Structure formats: C-alpha cells, structure tokens
C-alpha cells in the first residue's frame, strides 16, 4: 500500500488475535509473511523471540501489540529495546489484566526518575 | 535556576504528563478489550467455538487497517478491504478521538489484480467495473472476489454481484439503476442473467427487490474480516468487531503517549547528564 501506511504487528494469544484481526490489521502476503504470531501452549520462547526480532526490524511495522503475559517471556528483549519505532505496546489478555508495574516503558521511566 | 535545570523540570513535567496519558489510554484499551473478549465469548457460544477461531483465518489476507505517521503522531488509516492494493489510498482517521472513519470507496474492484485472471473469466471484470461506479458508499463489496479467503465469488454471475452491490448501496438507488442499465441486468434480481460486460442493452428496471434486500441484510460485505466467519454471523461478533476497533483506537493513543514518554525521558536524561 502506498502513502507510507504502516502495519500493526501482533504477538498475542488466540482470543486477542481473533478479535484484533476482525478489525482488519492482519496481513499475510504471498510469501506467507505474516504480521502476527498467535502464541499458544505449543509456542516456544524461541519462536516468540524470533517473531519479536523480526517485527522490530521490519520497516513496514509501526506498532507491535503484545500480550503482557507473553511479554514476560521475553522481558529481557523488551528491556533492551530502545528504538522508538516500532512502538511496543503491552496489552492485557483475556486471562491477565494490565499491570503497570510490569510495563517496560513505565519501568524505564521510574528507573530514570530514581536516577534524577 | 539555570537553563539546564529549567529544561530538566520541563522534561520531568512533560514525561509525567505523557505517562499519565499513557496510563489513561491503557485503561481505555483494557476496558475495550474486556468488552471485546466478552462479545467474542458470546459469539463463540452462539456460533460454535470452531467457527470463531483461528481455523477460519484465510491463508492470505491484506490489512485494511493501517497506521499513518505524520512524523509526530500515529493515526489509524482504514481502507476499503475490497479495494485493489495498487489504487487503494486509505484516508487518515482521527486517532485519539477514537474515530473509526471509513475511507471512501475507490475502485474496489478488480480486486486484487493478482486475481485478475479469475476476475476476467466469467463476468468478474464487469463486477469490478460496477464496483468502480459505486464510489462513495461506506463499504463497497463490489469486488467479485473476496479480498481474503479465496476466489469462490469469481464463478458467480452478474446477478449475484448485483445483489451484493445492492447490499452496500441500499441508499443509493441511482447507482444501482445506472449499473443495471450498464450491464443490462434486471434490477429486480435474477430475471436477466445475461448481462454483458460491455454494457450492452438496457434493461435496468426500478429497484423492486426490497424484499430480497431484507433477506440479505445481514450478509457482511465480502472482503471484510467478518466474512471469514460465515455469511451470517452472530450480532455479538459484530459487537466484538466494533469493540476491538475501539481498542485499536485506544492502542494508537497509547502508542502516541508512549512516544511522548520516551521523548520526555530522553530529554530528562539529557538534561541530567548535561547538568552533572
């Protein structure tokens, strides 16, 4: 799509994926390159890490939505992530509500306030 | 107070404000997601768990909801899911205000020039052209081939395409009449199946298919992700779609607030580092 329009990326569970894909954010091209990863019990941490690295290096992705529970699996990658684009947004899942104390962005800000 | 101190204070206040906005956006996002999950569960209960699951996702899909950046903030850009990728120009929607603007329909058709061969085979091209004529409607399901999920519609006749056009253009009788005239189809539906793609003949009658319109009132426009889950979906699934759309708007607002948090934190780090 022209005009600089960028995509969402999703690393979420099935319920969240079903709901968000209903809004039309999903993209799977002819080469089977998708902008989402559905994480279930059989998804390994390595797969999640690879998806995170892939989505954060693609130029056509502006925002990455990730369930906070799944973000906990790759917290070390999120804490080390400093690029402004794509923005990493931790969202709640059906089973786990949003916990601000675990959000990497807010943690970094709190740490910085501690420094200053 | 030195300049660096003043800058540090400004960055501190800006970061706090941005963090507050971020938390508020996260709260709105969580609320919208919670409502969406509930509606999704209701839809699964009424339609069946397998019908509302990842099993229904097509192998190929094209994003109709994207993000547009003006360098400072992100905004949602919604395109007609049936529009071809080459010509679709999504119009930006308001982001933080929660607008779910639909782009004006543009050439929906030939959808996917990648599926052009199917479109051209049996009157599909006519449907594509018809779709182009239906410019301006909110969602135009004019593309004979569903945007996602396969080319089953390619084999349908012009009458079926006209019926789908009627769904989207129920309030645009003039468009339907012009299409019926152009392709020589009966506007009443089904009487004349021999429409010519080149638009010969005129047999466009008045719209007498009000009853048929009601029968198809619940059919989602082809190309919308809602169509993955069947032609007749539960109202709760439609509600879930709307609620997740609200969640998406809140997510965009949260992403914008996060940008400001990062920018404020970077400014604060710079002022602290400069003053040290």
TrEMBL record, chain A:
<dbReference type="InterPro" id="IPR008218">
    <property type="entry name" value="ATPase_V1-cplx_f_g_su"/>
</dbReference>
<keyword id="KW-0813">Transport</keyword>
<dbReference type="InterPro" id="IPR005772">
    <property type="entry name" value="ATPase_V1-cplx_fsu_euk"/>
</dbReference>
<dbReference type="InterPro" id="IPR036906">
    <property type="entry name" value="ATPase_V1_fsu_sf"/>
</dbReference>
<dbReference type="GO" id="GO:0033180">
    <property type="term" value="C:proton-transporting V-type ATPase, V1 domain"/>
</dbReference>
<dbReference type="Pfam" id="PF01990">
    <property type="entry name" value="ATP-synt_F"/>
</dbReference>
<dbReference type="GO" id="GO:0046961">
    <property type="term" value="F:proton-transporting ATPase activity, rotational mechanism"/>
</dbReference>
<keyword id="KW-0375">Hydrogen ion transport</keyword>
<comment type="similarity">
    <text>Belongs to the V-ATPase F subunit family.</text>
</comment>
<keyword id="KW-0406">Ion transport</keyword>
<protein>
    <submittedName>
        <fullName>V-type proton ATPase subunit F</fullName>
    </submittedName>
</protein>
UniProtKB/TrEMBL annotation, chain B:
<dbReference type="GO" id="GO:0070072">
    <property type="term" value="P:vacuolar proton-transporting V-type ATPase complex assembly"/>
</dbReference>
<feature type="compositionally biased region" description="Low complexity">
    <location>
        <begin position="81"/>
        <end position="111"/>
    </location>
</feature>
<feature type="region of interest" description="Disordered">
    <location>
        <begin position="192"/>
        <end position="222"/>
    </location>
</feature>
<dbReference type="GO" id="GO:0051082">
    <property type="term" value="F:unfolded protein binding"/>
</dbReference>
<feature type="compositionally biased region" description="Polar residues">
    <location>
        <begin position="112"/>
        <end position="121"/>
    </location>
</feature>
<feature type="region of interest" description="Disordered">
    <location>
        <begin position="81"/>
        <end position="132"/>
    </location>
</feature>
<protein>
    <recommendedName>
        <fullName>Vacuolar ATPase assembly protein VMA22</fullName>
    </recommendedName>
</protein>
<dbReference type="InterPro" id="IPR040357">
    <property type="entry name" value="Vma22/CCDC115"/>
</dbReference>
<feature type="compositionally biased region" description="Gly residues">
    <location>
        <begin position="192"/>
        <end position="210"/>
    </location>
</feature>
């Amino acid at each position: 799509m022209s005009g600089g329009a960028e995509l969402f990326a999703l690393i979420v569970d099935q319920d969240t994926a079903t709901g968000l894909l209903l809004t039309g954010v999903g993209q799977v091209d002819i080469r089977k390159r998708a902008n989402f990863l559905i994480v279930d019990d059989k998804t390994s941490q390595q797969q999640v890490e690879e998806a995170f690295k892939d989505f954060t290096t693609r130029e056509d992705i502006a925002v990455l939505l990730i369930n906070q529970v799944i973000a906990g699996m790759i917290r070390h990658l999120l804490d080390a992530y400093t690029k402004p684009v794509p923005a990493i947004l931790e969202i709640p899942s059906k089973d786990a509500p949003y916990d601000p104390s675990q959000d990497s962005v807010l943690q970094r800000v709190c740490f910085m306030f501690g420094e200053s | 107070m030195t300049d660096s101190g003043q800058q540090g204070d400004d960055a501190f206040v800006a970061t706090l404000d941005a963090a507050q906005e971020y938390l508020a956006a996260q709260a709105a996002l969580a609320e919208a997601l919670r409502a969406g999950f509930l509606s999704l569960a209701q839809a699964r209960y009424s339609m069946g768990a397998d019908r509302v699951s990842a099993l229904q996702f097509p192998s190929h899909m094209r994003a109709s909801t994207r993000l547009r950046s003006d360098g400072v903030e992100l905004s949602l850009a919604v395109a007609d899911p049936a529009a071809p990728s080459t010509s679709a120009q999504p119009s930006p929607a308001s982001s933080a205000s929660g607008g779910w603007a639909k782009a004006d329909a543009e050439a929906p058709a030939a959808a996917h020039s990648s599926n052009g061969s199917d479109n051209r085979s049996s009157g599909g091209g006519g449907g594509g052209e018809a779709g182009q004529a239906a410019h301006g409607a909110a969602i135009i399901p004019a593309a004979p081939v569903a945007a996602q999920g396969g080319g089953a519609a390619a084999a349908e006749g012009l009458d079926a395409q006209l019926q789908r056009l009627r769904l989207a253009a129920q309030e645009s009788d003039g468009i339907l009449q012009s299409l019926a005239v152009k392709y020589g189809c009966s506007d009443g539906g089904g009487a004349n199946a021999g429409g010519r793609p080149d638009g010969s003949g005129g047999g466009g009658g008045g719209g007498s298919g009000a009853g048929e319109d009601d029968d198809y009132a619940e059919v989602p426009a082809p190309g919308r992700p809602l169509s993955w889950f069947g032609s007749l979906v539960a109202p709760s699934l439609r509600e879930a779609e709307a609620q997740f759309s609200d969640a998406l708007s809140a997510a965009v607002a949260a992403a914008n607030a996060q940008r400001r948090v990062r920018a404020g934190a970077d400014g604060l780090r710079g002022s602290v580092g400069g003053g040290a």
